[in-house]
């Protein structure tokens, strides 16, 4: 049976539109989904669709304007100080730029020791545990531990961030554009590593990306975001094989295929998709629900 670890309920985040006016816009609008133990969910959408904003709210870096995030049935904004620390032991993130996640003044062994100082001060077998997780992410601890972050590559630093999550035994990992700065073969290595860890340890992963092929490769469940809203969600294979929302269809059509050359007659005009979505919602306006079930595990937004 699926065990729900996190519940996102009607999450909304408004920002001021500009400095002078009082107008606000919804970067994230009424987003709801659940995360099961060991599930890999990808959050896919174009630049500016609100993916990172959702990630930041999950990490308590941004407070929602409305809506709730429940972790193990508790609202993460109702946690007491010591519970917040426990939350961060369980929920961690890896952001796009691995260099910014490391303090440049500390060698890697210091970075890992600090995890123990902060979260497990009683732990006796520090060295052994650190070496174990570094080996688990495919690196040689003796080559890595005495180095400063700037002496390592982007791929090595991302592996270390994964090692850190392993050491902390996190339950939910938010990976925001994790591998976008890695070359193709290192990417697959890191993706395989994530999948393997999730399967072995039951770690859930929220994989934020705008790369559809990476999402397909890795995730069990796919959420498609468009202008702050989830327009389609469900089982990854179902969503990709039977897309329903015009935006999802457009996204899937715009993936360059390895055997298809660029065709100068094929123009992408953003306005056409906006219009198409308008017409689609218009055609469905009599429907009684906002999200329609296509199957037990596949939903599409049918009206505004
Ligand atoms: N602190 C902020 N103040 C005002 N507007 C913000 C803030 N953070 C994000 N936004 C706006 O909210 C929208 C969503 O941003 P977000 O970073 O979540 O997009 P994204 O889907 O992660 O995009 P990308 O793929 O480019 O990373 C954007 O229009 C962005 O400009
Ligand atoms: Mg982002």
UniProtKB/TrEMBL annotation:
GO terms for molecular function: ATP binding; ATP hydrolysis activity. Keywords: ATP-binding, Nucleotide-binding, Transport. GO terms for biological process: peptide transport. It comes from the Bacteria. The keyword ATP-binding applies. Pfam families: ABC_tran, oligo_HPY. This is Oligopeptide/dipeptide ABC transporter, ATP-binding protein. Residues 6-252 form the ABC transporter domain. The keyword Transport applies. CDD domains: ABC_NikE_OppD_transporters.
